Amino acid sequence: MDDLTKYVALWDEYTKKLEEIIDASQKEVLKGLNMGDDDWEKSNSYYISTNNQELFMLHATLPQRLK
């Protein structure tokens, strides 16, 4: 609690590991849907470019929903 440097280092490690878990889980889900990473990213880019508010809300709330 009294070591800010250590806390920041642990926070960085936490976010790195969390990102690795999310990436691995995304690949697993996409595999189950028979969809590749490229197709998923292209679909996201296309639909985000349409300024669809519902999609913006889905993307904005995803981190909280993942917890």
Low-pLDDT runs of 5+ residues are none
Radius of gyration (Å): 16 Å
**What sequence of helices (H) and strands (E) makes up the elements?**
HHH
Q: How many helices in DSSP terms?
A: 3
Number of domains: 2
Strand content: under 5%
Molecular shape: elongated
| Separation of the first and last Cα atoms | 24 Å
**Helicity, in percent?**
over 70%
Number of strands: 0
Q: What is the makeup of the main sheet?
A: none
Secondary-structure-derived class: mainly alpha
The overall pLDDT average reads 89
Describe this protein with a few key phrases:
67 residues; mainly alpha; 3 helices; 0% strand; elongated
What do these coordinates show?
The protein is mainly α and 67 residues long. It folds into two domains: 1-33; 36-67, no CATH class. The protein has helices at 4-32, 37-49, 53-66. The mean pLDDT is 89.
